[in-house]
Amino acid sequence: MSEVLSQHEIDALLSAISSGDMEVEEIRSQEEERRVKVYDFKRALRFSKDQLRNLTRIHEQFARVLTTHFSAQLRTYVQFTVNTVEQLPYDEFIHSIPNMTLINLVNLQPLDGKVIFEVNPNIAYAMLDRLLGGPGEGMNKIENLTEIETRILTQLFKRAFVQYGAAWESITELEAEYDDLEINPQFLQLVSPNETVILVSIYVTVGEVSGTLNVCLPFVTLEPILPKLSSHFWMQQDKRKSINDQASEHMQTQLMSSVVDLKAVLGQTDLSFGELLHLEVGDCLSLKTRTSDPVELFVDDRKMFKARPGLNGKHLALQVIQRIEEE
User: Fold this and answer.
1) Which residues, if any, are the signal sequence (predicted)?
2) Which end of the chain is less packed: N or C, by CB atoms within 10 Å?
3) Total domains, the chain
């Protein structure tokens, strides 16, 4: 025999010979047929499995950043989780999303082209309701989106999606620039219908409402950095920050931009309730401090600094002279 048979061929051959139902040549022909795979040239697979795995890592990192960002903005339970990462034609992606949805366009400098962030309207309205003081209930009335609602959602998504470039720091330096907010995907023709794109589906939970965030990356946009998406290049990065470090830095950035109440207490005194009721305009109160004593500064009801009152031009001012250490 000129060829070596596989174990499967041997088992099938013995079974066929013993039963007399099938000849050896018929078994080989069936094995050859099983090796043939159907390939659709309209749905070209341009990304390797290695590149898809690295894209998954990048967007898992981005999902953690979005979780931290929206949790601080909405002050409720928010969770972003990468569901699937697949490649498909651009036309198939457009037909898979609702006819009326929220499409955010983001430029990735210095790459050419745009990245699409499609947000389910149910999720978007839950975020909007939470920002406006509501419980965070979702609804779908995108056809009646007012100018004020559009402005609020645009600013919300702009602050979130401009951080997309930070998720690529371990691969290359990219700067995300928010471009526009679209409603109807049928008028959005960024690439040809048969162009291969990467579709990242992220499952989003905002309070009791859940939905999806789809990220669409065209092949022509990622083509210049495709060699850097290999595992070999990934492992060669010596100065790569861990995910926890980036999350900590993002949390620190959010805390540094938080608004706190600062108040100065000139002095204190004790009054009975009867004296308080008989106070009139022009009455003088004797405080327990002297005019030469420093003023105490409170940050959110916590005594933090001692300061001296004065003027800065024509405005009242306080000069911090000492930090009060915690007991």
Assistant:
1) none
2) C
3) 3
154 and 194 co-located in one domain: yes
Half-sphere exposure of 114 (CA within 13 A, CB side): 17
Over the stretch 181-191, which tens digit does the pLDDT of each residue have? 888 887 777 88
Omega within 30 of 0 (cis) for the link into 110: yes
pLDDT at 235 over 60: no
Give the residue among 140, 137, 212, 129 at the shortest CA–CA distance from 183: 140
Rounded distance between C-alpha atoms, residue 164 and residue 186, angstroms: 25
Q: 274 phi and psi, to 5 degrees?
A: -65, -40
| Virtual torsion, Cα 229, 165, 100, 180, nearest 10 deg | -130
pLDDT in the model for residue 140: 65
Lowest-pLDDT range of 37-46, 103-112, 132-141: 37-46
Residue 92 domain-assigned (yes or no): yes
For 88, list phi and psi in degrees, rounded to 5. Answer: -160, 165
Neighbours of 156 (CB within 10 A): 19
Higher pLDDT, 194 or 45: 194
Closest CA relative to residue 166, chosen from 57, 58, 54, 53: 58
Whether 25 and 67 map to the same domain: the answer is no
CA distance 16 to 180: 66
Sort 36 into a burial class: Cβ within 10 Å, 0-12 / 13-18 / 19+: exposed
Spatial neighbors of 319 by CB under 8 A, at least 6 apart, are: 307, 308, 310
Q: Which domain holds residue 299?
A: 262-323
Query: Which of the two residues, 175 and 268, has the higher pLDDT score?
Result: 175
Closest CA to 123 of 197, 203, 58: 203
Q: Are residues 64 and 203 in the same domain?
A: yes
DSSP 155-206: HHHHHHHTTGGGGGTTT---EEEEEEEES-GGG--SS-TT-EEEEEEEEEEE
